[in-house]
């Protein structure tokens, strides 16, 4: 049975434990890693034994700007214990590596998430699909539990907030209020902004030009609202920085002639990771790309979603085309 909790309820769960495993989803983005690093720091400052991890446990270089990522341990080094397991920014348990082993001895499992596609799991669930980021939800939990927020913790949470809101292009006034709080607490906005939103290597510029020249526009897709496609073969994915490859979707979603952007990356032979983005049309209506991702075993938000699909690029793009008619 799952107990639904709010921020105060989640803080109450945390207060009951002196050993906590903090997990985020596989191949984490800045919200997953920033929210988990921030929570881990707050708990350690309170004297809690914390195991912070994700699968596979190697922090991508751009995300090393997030304070606390140097204390992430490989998932297979996290011990089982009878305390608390916290899953952050995870839409389903299969998005967490080694989930069964890490939770089988835990007395409680707290899930904090803002994905609408989350079916509900764990013993306690703090789910808010209206939240701009999991990082902002963690701040609410810390406030409810009266945990102090120092500059490093604020920077970790700010990293999640600024990326999941698309540099505040999405989300309402609450996102700006949260940013004000974190900046006042000492968040390093410039360092985070450059590392996560702007930085790339010089050789990537040439690769970027070559890849973007292969983008394809289908103006008649999704009822005439248009889809722009880009596929990245495995040999490019294997030789490039993961964050650089993922940044391609930002270029696609700026195309005026398409409301939906699709990036298909062959992460290994016979397996592709898909990133989907949607923006509102003139009338304000947008395509819910989380429904597309869910149909392929993934999830996310109406405007940003993803999935991992077995098959080569041709197979995966064909399946996506069937869903984006």
Automatic annotation (TrEMBL):
Organism, as annotated: Dietzia natronolimnaea
InterPro entries: DDH_dom, DHH_sf, DHHA1_dom, Oligoribo/pAp-PDE_c-di-AMP_PDE
Pfam families assigned to the protein according to its UniProt record, in alphabetical order: DHH (PF01368), DHHA1 (PF02272)
SUPFAM superfamilies recorded: DHH phosphoesterases (SSF64182)
Domain DHHA1: 238-311
Domain of life: Bacteria
Name listed for the protein in its UniProt record: Phosphoesterase
Domain annotation DDH: ranges: 20-160
Alphabetized GO MF terms: nucleic acid binding
């Amino acid at each position: 049975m799952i107990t639904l909790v709010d921020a105060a309820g989640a803080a109450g769960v945390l207060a009951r434990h002196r050993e906590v495993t903090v997990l985020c989803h596989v191949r984490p983005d800045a919200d997953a890693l920033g929210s988990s690093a921030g929570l881990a720091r707050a708990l350690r400052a309170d004297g809690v034994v914390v195991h912070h991890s994700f699968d596979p446990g190697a922090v991508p270089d751009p995300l090393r700007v997030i304070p606390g990522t140097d204390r992430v341990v490989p998932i297979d080094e996290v011990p089982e214990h009878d305390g608390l397991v916290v899953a952050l920014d995870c839409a389903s348990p299969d998005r967490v590596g080694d989930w069964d082993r890490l939770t089988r001895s835990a007395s409680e499992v707290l899930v904090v998430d803002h994905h609408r596609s989350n079916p509900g799991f764990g013993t306690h669930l703090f789910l808010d699909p209206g939240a701009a980021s999991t990082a902002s939800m963690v701040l609410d939990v810390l406030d409810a539990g009266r945990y102090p927020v120092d500059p490093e913790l604020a920077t970790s949470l700010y990293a999640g907030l600024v990326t999941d809101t698309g540099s505040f292009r999405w989300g309402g006034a609450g996102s700006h209020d949260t940013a004000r709080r974190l900046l006042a607490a000492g968040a390093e906005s410039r360092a985070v902004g450059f590392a996560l939103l702007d930085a790339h290597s010089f050789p990537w510029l040439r690769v970027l030009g070559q890849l973007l020249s292969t983008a394809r526009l289908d103006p008649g897709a999704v009822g005439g609202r248009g889809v722009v496609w880009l596929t990245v073969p495995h040999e490019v994915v294997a030789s490039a920085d993961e964050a650089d490859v993922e940044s391609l979707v930002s270029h696609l979603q700026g195309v005026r002639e398409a409301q939906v952007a699709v990036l298909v990356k062959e992460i290994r032979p016979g397996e592709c990771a898909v990133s989907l983005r949607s923006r509102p049309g003139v009338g304000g209506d947008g395509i819910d790309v989380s429904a597309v991702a869910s149909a392929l075993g993934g999830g996310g938000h109406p405007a940003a979603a993803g999935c991992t699909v077995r098959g080569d690029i041709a197979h995966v793009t064909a399946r996506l085309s069937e869903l984006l008619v």
